[in-house]
Design a protein that fits this description.
The complex is a heterotrimer of chains A (180), B (433) and C (290). In chain A, helix 1 (2-9) packs antiparallel against helix 2 (15-42). Chain A has helices spanning 2-9, 15-42, 48-52, 85-93, and strands spanning 56-59, 68-73, 76-82, 116-120, 131-132, 138-142, 147-150, 155-157, 169-171, 176-179. Chain A folds into 2 domains: 1-45; 50-179, Rieske Iron-sulfur Protein, CATH 2.102.10. Chain A has 180 residues and is of the alpha+beta class. In chain B, a hairpin with a 2-residue loop joins strand 3 and strand 4. In chain B, 62% of the residues lie in helices and 2% in strands. Chain B folds into 2 domains: 33-290, Up-down Bundle (Cytochrome Bc1 Complex, Chain C), CATH 1.20.810; 295-328 and 339-411, no CATH class. Chain B has helices at residues 13-21, 24-32, 46-67, 75-84, 89-116, 125-147, 152-165, 172-180, 187-218, 233-236, 240-265, 295-303, 307-322, 324-327, 339-359, 384-409, 420-424, and strands at residues 35-37, 237-239, 375-376, 379-380. Chain B is globular, with a radius of gyration of 24 Å. Chain C has one domain (36-283): Cytochrome Bc1 Complex, Chain D, domain 2, CATH 1.10.760.10. The chains are: A alpha+beta (180), B mainly alpha (433), C mainly alpha (290).
Chain lengths: 180, 433, 290
Amino acid sequence: MAESVVTENGEGGDATRRDFIHIAAGAAAVGAGAMLAWPLINSMNPAADTLALASIEFDMTKVQEGQQIVIKWQGKPVFVRYRTARELQEAVSTPLSALKDPEADADRVKEGHSQYLVVLGNCTHLGCIPTFGTGDFGGWFCPCHGSHYDTSGRIRKGPAPANLVVPEYAYLSDTRIKIG
Amino acid sequence: MSDHESTYVPKTGIEKWLDTRLPIIRFGADYMSLPTPRNLNYWWTFGGILALCLVIQIATGVILAMHYVPNTEMAFASVERIMRDVNGGDLIRYTHANGASMFFIAVYLHMLRGLYYGSYKAPREMIWIVGCLIFFLMIATAFLGYVLPWGQMSYWGAEVITNLIGAIPVVGEPVLIWLRGGPAIDNATLNRFFSLHYLLPFVIAGCVVLHLWALHAAGQNNPVGILIPKDRQAKDTVPFHPYFTVKDGFAIILFLMLFALFVFFMPNALGHADNYIPANPLVTPAHIVPEWYMLPFYAILRAIPDKFGGVMAMFGAIGVLFVLPWLDTSKVRSMRYRPTMRTFFILFVIVGLILGWCGAQLPDAPVIGTFKTFTLIDGDLNSYLWLTRFATAYYFAFFLIIMPLVGLRETPRTIPATISEPVLSGGDAEMKG
Amino acid sequence: MTLQTNIRAMKKTLVLIAAAAGLTFAAQPALAAGEAHALRNGGFSFEGPFGSFDRNQLQRGYKVYREVCASCHSMDLMHFRTLAEPGGPFFDSHQASPAENRWVKALAKEVQIADIDTETGEPVMRDGTAADRFPNPYPNATAAAAANGGAAPPDLSVMAKARHGGANYIYSLLTGYAAVPQGLQIRPGQHYNMYMAGDLTPFMPEGAHVPPGGFIAMPAPLTAGQVTYDDDTVASVDQMAKDVAAYIAWASDPRQVQRKQTGVGVLIFLFIFAGITYLSYRRIWKGVAH
């Protein structure tokens, strides 16, 4: 672009220095454009108020055996399930070889609290919310595209590629968890 | 310039394929190689600056619209949320708010340049008329945008300006209610203002395309104001790129420095403190003033002692610009060669500044000292009201009387035969690029 | 064309732009000029292009706000977490995020937030969290007005931007309570303040000298020693007024110092950019008369 003019003028003596100036000016213009564009792009990232709600606390005693409570975390549902002994037994006894996305039940719960399952309530296929108790494996069934999950929230049948996601959480006390 | 022949030769196969189907590269290349009068000075860089202003306003505006909530209960807080919580939101919002002022600084200088160098005269009438339309749309867009933060000035500005419509005989009242979507400025008004504020910039962008189209049909004016004959083209013009891209680029950077000074160091200097008080339909601020760029027109509105008359005068002040090409009777374009007219022009600029100043004052306040003289048509002679009236009279006289008469009676100085003549002889006393 | 004419041309353009900008500035004081005194100058550290907030002052100011102002004035747009944003009074470089700041979490816990019980749906009061807004002392504007003799205490979130003079105005107002001037007819529930906007002419006897200032519904809010500062600063009225004014100035635009710092960088960049482009321009136009 700009360089062609330099050659047209035909003052070849210090051509490299001249080229450098034009290239530097062009580079600075590109830099200025990027500087203008970046804040605009970055502004679409989560804002401070959204980030401040990144973690919530929950009292586990609110869930009774055989029940699940759905809580909203970061705009998404989280299933907190107090599994019955039978459900727990089923989850533990399933051999890993039977699983599409092999993961032991023990790795999906916190030690000493294995009756409580905490998973994100979005199907790993395309994000619909599975319902409990209607699938072939005693766990969840996603009505959108027919994915079946077991009592550990692991995918057993259907198009979903992975197990229901266990969010990052920790026990603050024996009965209180903090998600996120 | 208008009959500029394309020198673009498609090189690769893709370029050839595209050139017969959608010759967009040819269009761009022709634009870049457009022969441009080489004597264009820095006053001609405001076109490029304005294009950048429009891009900045649209880009920041689209982002702000992602975070803004057009609801009377939430608008004010959502704007402050942008300033506090959205990443870089303070910069984006202040850029947008000050960008409006920068836009108007540039457009006023651009218009004064056109006025001084006779850029509106044949064969460039359509460039000027479309330009006036853009200016009018800019005012409308800026007014609509100022309402969105829903502060006290937003609310009361909207109240006062929409009430102007009510001045129209017979249909005024129903049109006013229709415009507001209710008996008062409220949520319905805010929502439609937001919608229109988002729409109008794209209408402006469309008008800019027409503006440039007209420019390339008629060819660029230049400080000497003569048409460049075909046989002089090689001597008197240079390709737009790189000669004017780099010159415009340099001017743009200087302009951005001024812009940055406001955004980073005094973002609220051009605004009004009252707009940081949430809108309250029950309390009017002590002193309602529009943004600085509307002040001259606001002053004209107040100069007329009749409601409908004031509205007519205000719109007339913009309307008269549209017919300017037919009010100027001079055969000479550039005021460089019209010493009499130049004096009137300088006076016009001063009067414009005075009108702006008056628009920010209380009409009854005395101009000189604190003494009173005598009252004439609702106001003391020593008051801003009367200063505004004199200035308004000059504003209209400049276009309606001075321009036609001076054009007929003046003796212009000798106009050079080519634009190279003054350039090579060292130029005249005037500013050059 | 020579370099000189070029620079002259540029200067002229800049002067014109500056004049246009100057007009708007000149227009501003004309609006602000009321009957009030020239404001007192708090000598604030955050003024000027390189100024920044004094953290200790902001912490003291927050304490004054929390213990004095907050009993009547809301600050609806402020969240506790904002106090721990970079540049804020309680910013800690080791914090994971502003919402995880330990001081802010402790400060938030001191207040009670109205909420809805997630199970019963009943209104409850719970401890504040860093993500919460500052609680409003009144349930709504009508209640605020009713509790204060008809004048609702204004929200302080953006107060420094909402008044000409910003922090200096707040500082002046808080220290501007003086003895009622002789002859001034003052209505019950009103107080005289020499920095308040207004015109006292109608309330003075005919022909008497009209004092500066106006009426304000808020009684003098600060008394010496009212707040016990954690950093052993003596809590005089002047000190408290200055501190709370600085705090409100910060709260009105929490990112102002960072923005100024960015601005210095941007201007340096633009200056270099302009220099390079000017050289490029000179090269390209070399030998072309214009």
